[in-house]
UniProtKB/TrEMBL annotation:
Subcellular location: Cell membrane
Protein name per Swiss-Prot or TrEMBL: K(+)/H(+) antiporter NhaP2
Native source organism of the sequence: Pseudooceanicola algae
Taxonomy of the source species: Bacteria, Pseudomonadati, Pseudomonadota, Alphaproteobacteria, Rhodobacterales
Keywords: Cell membrane, Ion transport, Membrane, Sodium, Sodium transport, Transmembrane, Transmembrane helix, Transport
Entry GO CC: plasma membrane
Domain of life: Bacteria
Amino acid sequence: MDIILITTVIASLFVVIGAAEPFASRVRLPYSVILAVLGILIGAGATFFLRTDLTDALNPVAEAILGLPIRSNVFLYVFLPMLLFQATLGMNLRRMLDDWVPILVLAVVAVVVATVSIGYALSWASALPLAACLLIGSIVSTTDPSAVVSIFRSISAPRRLARIIEGESLLNDAAAIALFGLFMGFVMLGLPDPDLGDALAQFPVLIAGGALTGWVAARLAVWVMALFSRHELAQLTISVALPYLAYIVAEQSVGASGVIAVVAAGLTLNLTAPGRLPPQAWTSLRELWDVLAHWAGALIFILAALLIPRLLESVQLEDFFLVGVVILSAIAARSVILFGLMPILTMLKLSPTVERPYRVAILWGGLRGAVTLALALAVTESVRVPDDIQRVVGILATGFTLFTLLVQGTTLRWIIGCLGLDRLSPIDEALSRQVVAVALQTVREDLARTTENYDLNRETVRAEAKRFGERLDKAVNMAEENADILKRDRIALGLIALAGHERDTILARVRERTISARMADLVLSDADRLIEGARTQGRSGYQRAARESLAYGRPFQAAVQLHGRLRLSGPLARMTADRFELLLSRRLILRDLGTFINGRIRRIHGRRVADLLHELLSRRIEAVETALEGLRLQYPGYAEELERRFIRRTALRMEEREYVAMREDGLIGAEVYTALMQELAARRVFAEERPPLDVAIQRAAFVRQFPLFADLDDGAMKRLGRSLMTRYVNAGEMVLRKESMAKSVFFIASGAVELESAGHTWRLGRGEMFGQMAVLTRKARRADVRAIAPTTLLVLDEDRFRRLLSRSQGLREAVRNSAEQRGIDPAGLLPDE
């Protein structure tokens, strides 16, 4: 075929793709539906002109369209890895990890339920062998969430809900294609009735092998990309090669799922690359993949749709009945998941509450698309699959896809409107009116200053001011009509706005390179938790999310155990350094939020709400300062090194800004500007490097901070440093329980604890100890001890504590005072001096 003609056809398809998106927006239909309709029309038109006698002038073009090398391998090996890989890069994985249980259960269980339901329903309704029916079930069990997610975003649905749907769909595709490979093998081997248990038993092997392959490939890719830190184009090129190599190695060499390998590679790159690559390189990488995936997604849809007329050529009357069976069984299977499994997960507190209207929208939004057609095409191309099975698979998959696109897709927005999901809640409606009134007041003030500066005609200014004043009065009156918003709702809305501004501030600081890309991912995740906490549970949800952002997570606790038991300090040093930088970044952000409360929230929600938000913000700042001070005490000097790094990075950003301004003003030419920027980039590489943290070396300096140990000599201090064990506890965590046996004494390095005994409570803070009386009296503990803030404890066992007591006058004095406060005679407890 003429290469010029093929190039012309492909270029024309890009023109169609470019015009389809604004057209879909205008007619308010999902973009994928428009692409599918255009592809069907193009394919049907080409077939018509080839077979008609009206004219032969368009035959070369029609032949070029129908002769495009559209094969299943093109979809599965070229387009699919690109789409899956980009989807993983665009996800907020740390937030998705919060919901990994519902995502994983919905994805895997939904695929298995849909495959089995459709397979057995077809087996009952047709003469097809069970293996072929299950194959069809796996083909049509994949979902394309783009339509429902885009609509959910346009109606401001909960972000967590959209995130679960996206995560479910990504793993849904991977699981369905893995099952497709299993049942395709049974069909090609001629096994009519496979053992379903044996088939599903192979499923975990495919997933595990693919996940391991993808993880190894991504780790190697990140390592190589880090070596090329000054060559951004080289890093982008390696990222393009990664998904294809992972896919091919998993499929051809390991015998595992290539789709799972691509997903695992993308997830690993998403988690590790921001900390290893320069921020600009990571931003460019994601922008490149956004463009590639947009083209790939559109091309796979429109090329797959070109095949639909061909796949439906041999359709028969009884095939419509089987398509109906597939439709009903697929909807029933998805209903079981949405209305049966999801409420159970919610009751078990493994999934957020999904209201019934949202579940109906998700059910009707389960569109199928290019992946389903590509898998069906793979069956029709295989010479090892019987012709009658090829025909039925092609027709049923195509017919079901057309139903979801042309029926569900075109009515999805109408369904959402009928469910009332496209309307603002009364609170949001009242808030919007207040926002309009405040915004117009600000605009009037700014407009008055602008007209004065430009010395405009006074009559014109007066006429427009009168017109604008009428609109402002109307907006104020409408806002006053809805002034009865409950205070708790105003507080929740104010907190949502505050957390949203916090997120915007983080993004601005990342663009300025004040905050590194590695830390940006963490603080953005925390900001998202604050937004969702305030949206779902108001002030209590916001405060809980704020506390959790400072808590020591399970990975940190595991790193502590590795350091304490196996002396492996690498993970603890890395996580502690991350925590240092995270707290410094969060402190930087929080201190900028007070202006937003005074300038915006106070005008919309009033003084009382603004004052309360200031109080909550002050508590967050105090908690961050406390946590940071604890780390400063534990690792003296390291916080100063990070602050020096921050100052150097800020200076480089300001220097870059000056060069850009001089270039725009024409003070320096392109050659000088390029040389200056190259020198700046070289210095920035060194400024971005984080100083190493040695947790072992810091222990002696840490112990020296305690007044209790001030009178120890250097030798005793070193021995004590080796003897003390570090324990980290979160706020609310129980440290000791009443009636437990006394084996250790605890010294508070940072944070605070609360002791409760016989109905009385008292608190201890940094530099104090507890547990010593139970050890010295050899009795069970008489108090419950609970941490009331993220706390770092030093733990000393009983024998070493007694030896230390005999050497330290300061420690003996502290024990004596503690005993006297409790009415205990210290004479028999303390060793002779």
